[in-house]
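Hi there, hope your week has been kind to you so far. Do you reckon you could talk me through the fold, stretch by stretch? I've dropped the whole record in just underneath, so have a look:
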Amino acid sequence: MHKLVVLYPPPADPAHFRRYYETEHLPLVREMPNLLSYRYSFDIGAAQGESPYFAIFEADFEDADAMDHALTSPQGQAALADVPNYASGGSVAIDYPVASTVDGPQRGT
């Protein structure tokens, strides 16, 4: 599995960001080919202090090639071109292969 994570610093207008993101941007994202699943949140905390981020988005793809195809597709290009319409604070995108996963709760030792 390959993961794309987008971190969003605080925007100038948080209400606009939320509204636009959910009603306009995510429908574009859902159209991208090869997208296995996605998640997002506007409730970003930090282990210590205040989080430098307002929102987070995570998308799962089978592998890096599937993600690259999604992002370079017409649907992916439309989603990428849409980011300035809501993310006045910019965004930070990272991607990585998922090395391992854990199924179910972990038991203490």
